[in-house]
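Hey, can you fold this one?
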Amino acid sequence: MFDKTGTITNGVPRVTRVLVLWDQARLPLRKVLAVVGTAEASSEHPLGMAVSKHCKEELGTETLGFCHDFQAVPGCGISCRVSNIEELLQTSAGTDGTQTPTLTHNPTCLTLQGATTDESSLVTDGDEGSGSPSYSVLIGNRQWMQRNGLQVTADVDEAMSSHETKGQTAILVAIDGVLCAMLAIADTVKEESALAVHTLSRMGIDVLMITGDNRRTAKAIATQVGIRKVFAEVLPSHKVAKVQELQEKGMKVAMVGDGVNDSPALARADLGIAIGTGTDVAIEAADIVLIRNDLLDVVASIELSKKTVWRIRINFMFALIYNLLGIPIAAGVFMPVGLVLQPWMGSAAMAASSVSVLLSSLLLRCYRKTSVDQYESRANGRMRSLRSSQVSTHVGLEERRCSPRTLRRSRSRLSQISRSPSQTSRTDRAHAEPDRHSLLEHDQCGQEFTV
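Sure. Predicted structure:
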């Protein structure tokens, strides 16, 4: 089970698109960047660090405003209050009244109805001279905005979907309760990810990807590396539940991750594998730490473990063979034929047993990791990207689809609930009432019912 960000991907994302919703929040681009950069500067998530770095580059500064009341909700987004950005904007605009060139690599912005990134409005609006105003900031996915009472319009949702189908992550920005911007962030796939996944599959190991990112982005990454089953929009606690669910089915689960959000799943899995460049918490929770940020080392660790287990079995044979031969002789079984175990023979047998086990174990030092060229030759050109239809994507812990028989049974039960009270007996209502709870299960299976 692989995490996505920082494990299958390089974990060094960059902002590729900036979309300012001018019709909803009449804020200039530079003020949006200053607010967003200040808010994300307190985040430890790779996406937040990428956004903060991008804002600093666009504003041409290394210092940002003040962030307080910061709160990060894993799998959703962040919320905080930002202040002291007016001085930042005035400084970046130039003390001599001239505008300094601050857009180092002018980002390509999407053109939608009611959206703009007009550079003519780079100066601040009515907040000048009003001291240092404070801004309430929300940054996150669609669910985070909806949880905070903000509506995502169809145009914005379509723009987000267009980036997500390309494997990019789209996040929304709301300032003072108004949805005002969208940022698209791209994270490239590691070169060895597809080869590692293909090699593990050839070894008979089922490979899954589990991530808190949205389903479209997760599916796009999975098609590139050849993973056929994806669990997207999964909270950190749900990662642990998914690991436990697989274990209850009798499977042995190895979890590969690098972030704080992966540490509970790494500790719960039968084998936790952490990337050496990841967080300290993930490294502490894992059983194996890969010193290099190379997924082929996952394959190498499994190969080495198999050789180690095989060597342990050989050592048992070396240890037992002396006892199996020496004990009958010492018991006098072969005394009639004149074969007696002398004390020096017993000592020699014990020493030979220990030396043979030691030498057998030292042969593990001859192990050499398989090279990339050997892995590629074994793939023999059969490693290729999957089609979108070949990848099954599940949201959260959802894994099963309702069977037609279950749907027919649920519809018949729902018809009882939909009858008027006068037509429904007290016994019918007693039997129909528990079925209201089953509505949630069927809704998770992608079905909609109207009662």
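The mean pLDDT is 77. Let me know if you want another pass with a different chain boundary.
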